[in-house]
Amino acid sequence: AKDSVSVINIGRVWVPVIGAIAWDADVYLIHTGVNIGKFTSGASANQGIIAGAKFRSTTTGDGIAVVELK
Questions:
Q1: DSSP-assigned states of every residue in 24-53
Q2: Taking the model in full, what pTM does it have?
Q3: How far is C-alpha 58 from the chain's CA centre?
Q4: Measured between alpha carbons, how far is residue 51 from residues 29, 60, 62 in Å?
Q5: Are 63 and 40 in contact, with CB atoms under 8 Å apart?
Q6: Could you tell me which residues come within 8 angstroms of residue 5 by beta carbon, excluding any fewer than 6 positions away?
Q7: Is the Cα torsion angle 59, 63, 65, 67 positive or negative in sign?
Q8: Residue pair 16/68 in contact by the 8 Å Cβ criterion
């Protein structure tokens, strides 16, 4: 609660991801469960879409990927 964090609204950022990621896929944030705070390209019950965000790199599994925020 007392940690400071940087916030970015526009631009590209590296994020932790779960699963394979395709270029230009929609970005979803996992908000509950063991992977809370990580990102993915597939929708499910414990995820919310990040409006205007797209993946700008690819992965074949868990790791990090570039997300572009608009």
A1: T-EEEEE-SSTTTT-EESS--TTEEEEEEE
A2: 0.86
A3: 12
A4: 11, 24, 22
A5: no
A6: none
A7: positive
A8: no
pLDDT tens digit string along 52-64? 999 999 999 999 9
pLDDT, tens digit, for every residue of 3-62? 777 788 899 999 999 999 999 999 999 999 999 999 999 888 899 999 999 999 999 999
Both tokens of 15, joined, read: 């994020």
Torsion 52-58-64-66 (CA) sign: negative
Residue 67 parent element (H or E): strand 63-69
